Amino acid sequence: MNPLFRAIMHAANKKAVVVLLVVLPLTAMLVYHWNAYTITTIDVQQRADTLKTLLKEKLQNMDRRNDQIPYHIKDGMSKLLAVNGCVCEGDKPGITFPFSQLLFPQVSATQLHASIPDSDLQKARQYRNKEYRSFYKRTHTAADSLILAEANSPLQYPTQGVEVRPKGTLLIPGLSLNQIHKGEHFLVDLNATMGTFNTAALVDGVQVKGEGEMRIKFMSRSLASLNRQLEFVTYTNTLFHPNTADVVQFKAGIFQATFTVKIRHPPMPKFYNPGPRKEYNVSTLVTIATKTFLRYDKLQDLINSIRQFYPTITIVIADDTKDPKPVSGPYIEHYIMPFGKGWFAGRNLAVSQVTTKYVLWLDDDFIFTSSTKLEKMVDILERTTLDLVGGAVREVTGYTATYRHTVSTGAGDEEGDCLHIRTGFHHVIEGFPNCVVADAVINFFMGRTEKIREVSFDPRLARVGHLAFFIDGLGSLHVGSCDDVIISHASKIKAMLPWGQSETDKAYSTFRYNYSTQGTSMNEYELYYLKNYFKCVTSD
């Protein structure tokens, strides 16, 4: 073979190998992510112990004739259906090679604990368990309990949806009795624990006993007359509680049913008046809130960029610098805090001063551009049920981040529950192709002011913390993320280089990254353990 031809073939083979080494991992990555993200679009203190015993006895008395029939649990379902025994497990280590974590991200698992002396650990655990039990009693009512309407029961009754205001009265809807036997009398009775029964009207031929009491009985020879009387049964709450539920037992002979009456004040609406300007635009709907510490140069750049696009929008600034400098100008509110009070404490202060329907949170080193269209955020909040919507942050390198995460929990044991955090989102929002629903988003978001105040920011996170806010809001905040509302991030490259740091940069880094300066503050993992009752966390 010609030596020249042999050399050309050898070089070609080497190129082919290189191409394969590059193409195959990229192809694998694309296949992995294609399968991992299937995108869909969607239109967007009761007597607990007595109730628990009542329902447990009811379940135990159910027909158990099928208990002896053998069954086989499907592979993989045990972990999915685990009750009070969740486990945080990470992926087993695989073959490592350059960019392996990028191509095939693995889930890590962390067991949570508190960084306190062993002598105080037992007390911390006891206090944590006590607080959790108290929280459970406050947030769980009879309306959260499982109640089954048995098959073929002659009793008709409401299974859900009966609600009365505290100390109020309502007609109980849907009570009725079907033919159960041929006899001389039909008898039904109702029992409650937090209220009394009465009748709004009386029907001839029906005997009533117990009006104004927690137990009432009805008896009649005529089933039609009895059912007519049941249409006028009232319930009055007598034991005050602002948000709970009563358990009502409905009986007729051997048949018994149980349903709940929610007792609560309805959610209180809170509206925001546009104010003296009367216009219904971004400036009257949105307040911008930020927290600053030492970095007045970056803060001023942010203000200048905001004023370029929104000259009359209000900016609220929380500042815990030791020797604060004045920050003034039209539509600027500058609030001074105790020195080094912290990031989340500053968030709370800033949000507490907002008087508009929405608040936009951002860091003090962001820069508005022509792509920072707050109108788009307002539009999606006005037209959907979302409580909060995040945007995207463009770094100086040109990379744009949205920081979307899904968050879920698993029921655990006496050591706590499991927290699972994953990169990604749930589904695309119909009508907004650039927007998705997630559980946590980036540090540039707009939200309903009242909902953000409801969740609030834990001031114990003084230096580092972000996900903690969204974990506290899990189950309360309906969160979205839109990648077509973009804000720029001031360059950190110069500040990170030793020869490029100013005295302000050095002082800021000392407080921002030196954890010995945090004093009594905690990190997110310690809060998850001590406050949120988690024993471990997994994340990718």
Structure description:
With 540 residues, the protein is α+β, with helices and mostly antiparallel strands. It folds into 2 domains: 144-264, Immunoglobulin-like (Sandwich); 282-539, Spore Coat Polysaccharide Biosynthesis Protein SpsA, Chain A, CATH 3.90.550.10. Helices cover 29% and strands 26% of the residues. Strands 1, 14, 15, 16, 17, 18, 19, 20, 23, 24, 25 and 26 form a 12-stranded mixed β-sheet that branches. A 6-stranded mixed β-sheet has the order 4-13-12-7-10-9. The longest helix has 34 residues, at 3-36. The protein is elongated. The two termini are 54 Å apart.
Quick one: CATH class of the largest domain? Alpha Beta
Count of β-strands: 27
Assess the beta-strand content as a share of residues. 25-35%
Share of helix, binned: 25-40%
Low-pLDDT runs: 30-37
End-to-end distance: 54 Å
For CATH, the homologous superfamily of the largest domain is named as Spore Coat Polysaccharide Biosynthesis Protein SpsA, Chain A
Give the CATH architecture of the largest domain: Alpha-Beta Complex
Mean of all residue-level pLDDT scores: 83
Q: What is the count of DSSP helices, taking H or I runs of 4+ residues?
A: 15
* Protein structure class: alpha+beta
Tally of separate domains = 2
The profile of the biggest β sheet is: 12 strands, mixed
Radius of gyration: 31 Å
What fold name stands as the CATH topology of the largest domain?
Spore Coat Polysaccharide Biosynthesis Protein SpsA, Chain A
Using the alpha-carbon principal axes, give the shape.
Answer: elongated
